[in-house]
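Homework-ish question, so no full write-ups if that breaks the rules, but can someone show me the predicted structure for this set?
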Amino acid sequence: MKENKVGTYSFVAEPFHVDFTGRLFMGVLGNHLLNCAGFHATERGFGMAELNESNYTWVLSRLAIELEDMPAQYEEFSVDTWVENVYRLFTDRNFAIYGKDGKVYGYARSVWAMINMDTRKPADLLSLHGGDIVDYIETEKACPIEKPGRIKVSSCMPVRSMDVYYSDIDINGHVNSIKYIEHVLDLFSKDWYAGHVIRRFEMAYVAESYSGDTLSFFREENEDGTYDIEVRKNVGGENPEGEVVCRSKLKFDNK
Amino acid sequence: MKENKVGTYSFVAEPFHVDFTGRLFMGVLGNHLLNCAGFHATERGFGMAELNESNYTWVLSRLAIELEDMPAQYEEFSVDTWVENVYRLFTDRNFAIYGKDGKVYGYARSVWAMINMDTRKPADLLSLHGGDIVDYIETEKACPIEKPGRIKVSSCMPVRSMDVYYSDIDINGHVNSIKYIEHVLDLFSKDWYAGHVIRRFEMAYVAESYSGDTLSFFREENEDGTYDIEVRKNVGGENPEGEVVCRSKLKFDNK
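A: Not a homework solution, just the prediction itself:
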């Protein structure tokens, strides 16, 4: 396994996983990427199941996906994933998304922390399994997209509010990382997507939200045409500003 | 292929596809079943891609799923599917869902029509490909659950209304069949699911809904403890009753 630092996993774009333009939903791609991260970590002894036994779990902190194109319905595609770097409290995991004939759809970057499930405190990655994790760092493979950046939203008028429902909630009782992607992308209309494609999508996961929470979405357009979105929970009442749950940045191109 | 009338397909319950109890979401199972229907039909020359070329498409009319249990996170399971009957305008397709060691999770029944995509009129299944489809009827395999029944909802007070968003819409421009399942199940709270499991789920698909539509959900509890739900689009205004999109019946058991 240490020889083979890059994991490769194959997928097909299923009918209910493509949007009205016939291209894979970004949330579905995100789900595949996170699954690949899980497969790759598990195969190397750092998977959720192993960690949960010792009371630790991986937490996704940042995700950035940049695409030239997106798989079409029924198309086969594959995802390469590898660990680019390991720091004391974070690790950088990258992805490359390929079509059947080696066509490059795009790349993704993610940043993960590990926490103790009781204390919710971060674990020292470099001391885990005697520092084993650094043996899996892949230094050769390029991920030619920018790292996730800072996202700042100053708008105080939500463009949408929604309650958290049953289908949003994962096994940890949190709104799952993929559902935030779907809800953020739903802030743009079908007409908008008829004329635009997502070139780059970024998400910064800040805090968890739960059943019973109300999520408010704040959106602003930047001078360069990108959009920044902030999701806050339970805005109003005792805590008028609510609490930031996640932030997203979207770069669209005209079709 | 005519020898092998039952198709078998394997899956694993992915982390983002299980609910807070750690069991597969019903909508995800529904997605897998419909994919199996697609695989099975395609392998026998009756798939969407082949049909679309000749301007026809399959339309799901009814789905009923009855389960003793649901796969847990990371569990492998498989789906058998076969054609039970073919009539002039409808075909009955069944499913069996098994665990790794032959454990039976449950069964499902579905009813499909085929329509001409231009005229939206139903096609005569018995004359398609020279009546070839009847050669695939499997008469031996049992599907020991009741057929989908009639669902009648008289409530005129919606329990929820929601706009159709980008992530609801499939390649045909319709709200996809799986999203209705998710939205219907979201009418029940996380607390409800903490104490109840879905024993049987039924859906009757009546009409399509589109981007820009507003969906209203009407729910009533029957004397036997089952719930009937009707989804109508664009209730109010010129057409106070709106138009029925689908109806669902849910039977829960206490945990």
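Now go work out the reasoning yourself. Hint: Chain A has a mean pLDDT of 94.
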